[in-house]
Amino acid sequence: MRIGQGFDVHQLVEGRPLIMGGITIPYEKGLLGHSDADVLLHTIADAALGAIGEGDIGKHFPDTDEAFKDADSAKLLEHVWALVKEKGYKLGNMDCTIIAQKPKMAPYIEPIRERIAQLVEADVSQINVKATTTEKLGFTGRGEGIASQAVILLVAE
Ligand SMILES: Nc1ccn([C@@H]2O[C@H](COP(=O)(O)O)[C@@H](O)[C@H]2O)c(=O)n1
Ligand SMILES: C[C@@]1(CO)OP(=O)(O)OP(=O)(O)OC[C@H]1O
């Protein structure tokens, strides 16, 4: 059994789509990054890499590499999950928190869980996704960015 945690932040800017957990969410701004900036999938990838002792996504997918420019983070997570399986693990469960003042994530939580379940070859019941504001405090509260946290438990295949 192995545990890993992930944390990531991306800036919210105009002129970008908001992609969260592999789902495009209608909003006036989107997240800025070298990739599609899917902060939730990055967090999950980092938690999984942490659990198997394989560093972080910056090590596997450097933001100096043009190959990852505008990368689909779902593909990055699939690559990470192949490493998890190679090491002989599968998902026990994961618990994630999206930290965003806006937009309201509640309507998108179920589609996000289902997409993550596909990517990590698990049942949706093994994946919990929550959202919280920071009560208008700090950079997330001012709507300057979105943060995300995740904890993952891996179990032997
Ligand atoms: N971006 C968000 C933030 C929160 N929610 C939901 O609202 C509930 C209350 O949020 P607080 O920050 O006031 O605790 C939270 O538990 C979520 O269900 C959301 O959907 N989207
Ligand atoms: C995913 C990668 C690679 O495209 O780029 P970003 O989208 O900028 O994301 P970040 O979480 O800052 O770091 C990982 C990167 O190397």
UniProtKB/TrEMBL annotation:
Indicate whether Lyase appears among the record's keywords. yes
Pathway(s) of this molecule: Isoprenoid biosynthesis; isopentenyl diphosphate biosynthesis via DXP pathway; isopentenyl diphosphate from 1-deoxy-D-xylulose 5-phosphate: step 4/6
GO molecular function terms attached to this record: 2-C-methyl-D-erythritol 2,4-cyclodiphosphate synthase activity; metal ion binding
Q: How is the cofactor bound?
A: Binds 1 divalent metal cation per subunit.
Q: Domain 2-C-methyl-D-erythritol 2,4-cyclodiphosphate synthase, which positions?
A: 1-154
Residues annotated to bind a divalent metal cation: 8, 10, 42
The record's listing under InterPro entries reads: MECDP_synthase, MECDP_synthase_CS, MECDP_synthase_sf
Q: Which domain of life is it from?
A: Bacteria
Enzyme Commission number(s) of this protein: 4.6.1.12
Q: Which Pfam families match?
A: YgbB
Q: Which Gene Ontology BP annotations are present?
A: isopentenyl diphosphate biosynthetic process, methylerythritol 4-phosphate pathway; terpenoid biosynthetic process
Which chemical reaction does it catalyze?
4-CDP-2-C-methyl-D-erythritol 2-phosphate = 2-C-methyl-D-erythritol 2,4-cyclic diphosphate + CMP
Required co-factors:
a divalent metal cation
- Cite the position(s) of the site with description Transition state stabilizer: 34, 133
Residues the record lists as binding 4-CDP-2-C-methyl-D-erythritol 2-phosphate: 8-10, 34-35, 56-58, 61-65, 100-106, 132-135, 139, 142
Q: Which positions, given as ranges, span the membrane?
A: none
Keyword annotations from UniProtKB, A to Z: Isoprene biosynthesis, Lyase, Metal-binding
| Signal peptide feature range | none
**Major enzyme class:** lyase
Question: PANTHER family annotated for this entry?
Answer: 2-C-METHYL-D-ERYTHRITOL 2,4-CYCLODIPHOSPHATE SYNTHASE, CHLOROPLASTIC (PTHR43181)
Q: What does this protein do?
A: Involved in the biosynthesis of isopentenyl diphosphate (IPP) and dimethylallyl diphosphate (DMAPP), two major building blocks of isoprenoid compounds. Catalyzes the conversion of 4-diphosphocytidyl-2-C-methyl-D-erythritol 2-phosphate (CDP-ME2P) to 2-C-methyl-D-erythritol 2,4-cyclodiphosphate (ME-CPP) with a corresponding release of cytidine 5-monophosphate (CMP).
Concerning NCBIfam families, the annotation shows: ispF (TIGR00151)
Q: What family does the Swiss-Prot or TrEMBL record give for this protein?
A: Belongs to the IspF family.
What interactions and quaternary structure are annotated?
Homotrimer.
Please identify the protein, giving its name as recorded: 2-C-methyl-D-erythritol 2,4-cyclodiphosphate synthase
- What organism is the protein native to? Mangrovibacillus cuniculi
Taxonomic lineage is:
Bacteria, Bacillati, Bacillota, Bacilli, Bacillales
